[in-house]
TrEMBL record, chains A, B, C, D, E, F:
<feature type="binding site">
    <location>
        <position position="145"/>
    </location>
    <ligand>
        <name>Mn(2+)</name>
    </ligand>
</feature>
<keyword id="KW-0464">Manganese</keyword>
<dbReference type="GO" id="GO:0046872">
    <property type="term" value="F:metal ion binding"/>
</dbReference>
<dbReference type="GO" id="GO:0008783">
    <property type="term" value="F:agmatinase activity"/>
</dbReference>
<feature type="binding site">
    <location>
        <position position="141"/>
    </location>
    <ligand>
        <name>Mn(2+)</name>
    </ligand>
</feature>
<feature type="binding site">
    <location>
        <position position="118"/>
    </location>
    <ligand>
        <name>Mn(2+)</name>
    </ligand>
</feature>
<feature type="binding site">
    <location>
        <position position="143"/>
    </location>
    <ligand>
        <name>Mn(2+)</name>
    </ligand>
</feature>
<keyword id="KW-0479">Metal-binding</keyword>
<dbReference type="InterPro" id="IPR023696">
    <property type="entry name" value="Ureohydrolase_dom_sf"/>
</dbReference>
<feature type="binding site">
    <location>
        <position position="221"/>
    </location>
    <ligand>
        <name>Mn(2+)</name>
    </ligand>
</feature>
<dbReference type="GO" id="GO:0033389">
    <property type="term" value="P:putrescine biosynthetic process from arginine, via agmatine"/>
</dbReference>
<keyword id="KW-0378">Hydrolase</keyword>
<comment type="similarity">
    <text>Belongs to the arginase family. Agmatinase subfamily.</text>
</comment>
<dbReference type="InterPro" id="IPR006035">
    <property type="entry name" value="Ureohydrolase"/>
</dbReference>
<dbReference type="InterPro" id="IPR020855">
    <property type="entry name" value="Ureohydrolase_Mn_BS"/>
</dbReference>
<feature type="binding site">
    <location>
        <position position="223"/>
    </location>
    <ligand>
        <name>Mn(2+)</name>
    </ligand>
</feature>
<dbReference type="InterPro" id="IPR005925">
    <property type="entry name" value="Agmatinase-rel"/>
</dbReference>
Length: 292, 292, 292, 292, 292, 292
């Protein structure tokens, strides 16, 4: 967020944007924004607090990545702040997200959204799909998210990828790290609907080769990480990938044509140590640098 | 919840109902149930966890009240457990609450609901009103809850009492402990729509006299208590009533014809000490004994 | 716990049993129950809260395991609730556990106990031993638990396996993951009293081969897991096994004749993130499925 | 604890004793020690951590009291550290407490014990009674502690004062602040067995007059304080006394011949803010100054 | 903070300023800014996090005060954000604070600073004194803060008011709520150096009368509040004033000519419930409205 | 700390020293002491609480290491307690640390310091260097700590190793586990100033061979560990080494001539589970045993 402090100049004021994302909107190539919505979460809410926490805690992070030998300060990223989203009216919240995604994409920029629960990815992917009809989705997650209905609902964090499939059809969703779901979901995926990779990110290189030149949306449900390193999430699921495994998978995406992306499902209050928020910040930094 | 453990008898098993509420449904006079819903909460959710926490922590409470010299064990109360409510679809959740309230009232029993956010009171009051058309509402709260709209929503924890007014009209809502709202809400109330008592429970005796013989619904938003004694709530508001002030106000209600009631807005996770849950349990005990 | 709600039917009420364990007692093959006792813990108590927490949090878990391709809903498991155990009188508490274990075994069913501190395994193993005199014990733990006395006590969480050895003698206790104890304990074990495997679960396949056809009791002190993934325990000990290592060790047990089992030493309050409880639930699910 | 650091002198080393209690044993008039035992607590343990926490946090407290215009540094108090007490064997733990109380009293000094659960007061009072047969007990508490049995136990935190009555008989126990118990306990007390003052410390001046010249034991269960100011305790009970009310009651005791005393039932881990520990330290300071 | 989002307009973005403080700098009458410094705190640091927490949590507060019947939205307040202050170099940090205070005062505006530890008040008062040589200081605090040296330091949170006295001399510091300090500090104050009011805010009306027409600086160390309502502070001191007592004292200041002010010593992390931060926000709102 | 309890003997009193470090000063070979200073930490302070927490929690640790088959009880280690260090005056704090280091080294003993922030290593290394001019430094850390200035400061936790380089020059600092810093820091190190090993401890065996016979100082910034196992630190950085990797690296140091050492940057309050403190204790035990 570029703050305009006319009249009060010459003082060193702490930034309120994500670290290293200090470009103005017009000059920016990438626009990040927060979608603090967790209204369909049945079990443990709190991802609404993620964007605010990540900005505040990003001060503990360097802008430079030794893994990629790149620096956020060499990129042009604008931090638009957080959308003001209504609770209790899911469809109106999703429309607002769709609106800003569309606006950013039309301006020739690439949106990177900070959730919020995973359902916020649905309007973002839908808008990207309108702009790039042959879009593929790379999906990191602990959970299949492929139920058709969840507690009678069609629209929820537990069936968001199924709704994406409604839009893109078979073979265009590439899932990694999946280790939880119903038997029906796993069988449905395995029958050809999605390319589901169990437990790890193994296979990412093949996927990257296959998607060379194709527009890609990357959605990272941070609970793909093992809860040892990422306890701050609504439905922690043991047996996940380590940070370095996710890091290497992200680096593997470097050559892809990533049009838009998101990181979702940080619930900062469930991890009082602040580690989960710090990890989310580092994942976002690496993702942004991969897109750079 | 009366558990049927056919085949495994003779062992001392810990109860899973609220302490002292071990009557069977048929013999019961009062039925308590949980409405674990907080789907419209914008700021800090978590009241969905209240009924479960209160049952578990009620083991630390005596069934006897020295204040009233009464004992829950001398009453007939059935604990029906918690409704399974959907998130992301507010109206369906409210319908389910309406259903069980109606069922209990039709059976000639008195429902006492454990929220959940304050919006759960709306269907409960609506059902009580159908059965008792001249119902008055006694409302303890820190907040006016009288907005007509809140962030564009008509149905939310911030305007539940306004929606109740839509049903009952002027002069039948008696508010106590109110210390937060917009100027418009206070002025609207003071212009004759509700009987709003600021900051304290002063005036409760007059109200009780006025309502002699009239059917009454009591809704206790626990944040009427000062956050020093009740920090575990979504929007803590300093300057509230002490436990003993609320206790004395409840005792003042003893002669009233209370047809139904609720206690709402405990968010147990915000108070790791467990005190807020213990206080909520004690308020519920005292309320039940007042109804006995 | 199968609840009998005569008179109040037709409402969707949240379950209070461990997820997927909804069989009635008579039809059940496996009976789970809680032993919420931590009375001999010197350092950090709290495992008394484990069974209650696990039931409540199990709602976040799927009943299906992709690792085993099995589902709890295809089994017949009865959840008996938690024993009401006295504190300050260790021997009376242990007698109560012995009583229910005996009852379940005599009924031809298999008991699975949720601790509580590790000492609760002693009466459970003793009862299983009475029914199956050639019983072997598979023991996952960070700690040897082989002291003869601990702070002058013969009966404590720190010498429970030594007391089991008093009952079964040399060569019938198979320990995995052990990484903490006195020099005397390690030397005593290595001199032939127990089969102690240091640090990891390596060797589990050989043990399984050796125990083919033999009745087995499996006791899982959850602190065998690395504290990174399981911080919620009284004496966390770094250098433990990962979830996937324990998972694979459990799957290795699939062919064994497991007569009874337990999972112990979750102290949920020490891990406010809820991850430890979620991990304990997942371990219990996998253990139950291995027994299915 | 006076530390003997021969050989390493001339450095400013932080003290590990309670603030202002730096006298040597021989010169001391009062001896404080910790009894970190909570083995009979059924509901929420943790008072075992109180003495250690209080020493560490006492650094935030001044030694001077403006209320009494006295200073701990003008007294001679020795801090003996904490007893090493066994868990799982209640009677052995109580014997160890009795031993040190007896030793201190025989040396003509006055013991002040930091609990631990309330049961630790029993051996302390018993030893004081042996030395001063006409001892009266002043008891601050939220709970009656007068059950004859609790969950089948004769020795527990819930019946400690009943056990004291077994020793001293009618009329010599003066209870203040009591607001929780069974109907039977209140009736038993009111029938002449103890002098029970409900809810507040009102009546303390009369008691002080009555006990002029009589040897007195003061036992302060800190849960007499309202949980708003003292949430860190096992069974918080709303409606308690404020700090200033307790402070004034303690000052009222100034003229009494206090032979021994204790403060019990701080469970520091239940109050992460540290306020409960700070309050316990301040109560201990004021109690010590009253005895000075 | 007025954000300049050129190019990305038409979206509802969440504000990052304190609620109701959305004026531009030029039009503003009052300027609030944060001084996140706690570098001299010996015991428990953390007040550096206060300004950021207060902004984020202010969303839970109404802009309207029923106590004063005033609304922040009717005032012109600019939120300048937080100074970027160095740690480990106290004097450089204080210089930066002095700089912004001077700038604001010279612009004819009134600065209101959010601490940080109490030492940040020193440069703020010094600058106000330069502009208004007959300045008086109204000081709410639990602690005297009058030591001449603290652990060998002349500049620390424990002697800030003594340093202020070095500047203003006798009779111009009016202290309220004081309940902790050394005997020397109390005696030094009482000998005529400051006007020290013990324990409560009694006497505030007389002070207000006396200071009619005189320029005043108001410094509120929030630990003047009882730790029951304000646990989130470094050195909680029981026996403090209630929120309503502080509220009434603030309202009493309404007629004064308040030139500058601060609220200090919130350490939000020590109170995970968020109540302390909510209370600090409400105190700041009331203070701003008093100045309006 | 050897406590001198003349006059009060014959009672089992809990130790207040680090477990197994009960030797007297004169007989000791190694002296441990705490340096509770975190005054230059910009982001999240709290390492000042580390030494006290580690002593208290060390009771949960065995003195015997199965990894090394050694026991602290076979060594002669004296625990000197914690230095009383001033805040707000960095250089005075560092002088005090230098003083005790010098004293211990001159006595022919080996100092092992418990931090505090990493800056405390500077005076310790400086003193060791005076005594052993050809000293090499083995440095475990997540961060380079090689900035020349940090926020305008020359002396801070973020540039401590750069200040060490000022003293020792090129090639004598061996860094392991480094994964965070600016591009400039990495390039500066790689240009020959330090021997920087990225991400892991790989290369430690070569370093050990190279340093055979050379005096060595070992400084362990515990944040070299992955935050999954060590969340309790100021700037957690994902992608770190596991406990077993650090353990094996320490064992690799066994043959070296370690003259002095430290473990720094535990911030216990950020990890309420206590695991970080337990890990720090275990690292310290292993380090001490390696030096034995």
């Amino acid at each position: 967020m570029s703050d305009n402090k006319t009249g009060l100049t010459g003082f060193e004021i702490l930034k309120s944007c994500f670290i290293g994302c200090e470009a103005g909107y017009d000059e920016s190539d990438i626009v990040i924004f927060g979608a603090p919505f967790d209204g369909t979460v049945t079990f443990r809410p709190g991802s609404r607090f993620a964007p605010m926490s990540m900005r505040a805690e990003s001060i503990g992070l360097e802008t430079y990545s030794p893994y990629q030998n790149k620096d956020l300060e060499d990129m042009k990223i604008y931090d638009a702040g957080d959308l003001d989203l209504p609770f209790g009216d899911t469809s109106r919240a999703l429309q607002k997200i769709a609106g800003i995604e569309r606006y950013i994409i039309k301006a020739g920029k690439r949106p990177v959204m900070i959730g919020g629960e995973h359902l916020v990815s649905l309007p973002a992917i839908e808008e990207a799909l309108k702009a790039y009809p042959d879009l593929h989705i790379i999906h990191f997650d602990a959970h299949t998210d492929l139920r058709d209905e969840y507690l009678g609902e069609k629209l929820s964090h537990a069936n968001v990828i199924r709704r994406v499939w409604d839009l893109v059809g078979d073979g265009r969703i590439h899932q990694f790290g999946i280790r939880s779901g119903t038997r029906e979901e796993f069988e449905w995926a395995d029958s050809g609907h999605t390319k589901l990779h169990r437990y790890t990110t193994k296979g990412i290189e093949e996927t990257v080769k296959e998607l060379s030149g194709v527009p890609v949306y990357v959605t990272i449900d941070l609970d793909v990480l093992d809860p040892s390193i990422f306890p701050g999430t609504g439905t922690p699921e043991a047996g996940g990938v380590s940070f370095m495994e996710l890091e290497n998978a992200l680096i593997a995406l470097s050559g892809l044509d990533i049009k838009a992306a998101d990181v979702v499902e940080l619930s900062p209050h469930y991890d009082a140590s602040g580690v989960s928020t710090a990890v989310a910040c580092k994942v976002l930094r690496e993702l942004l640098l991969v897109m750079g």
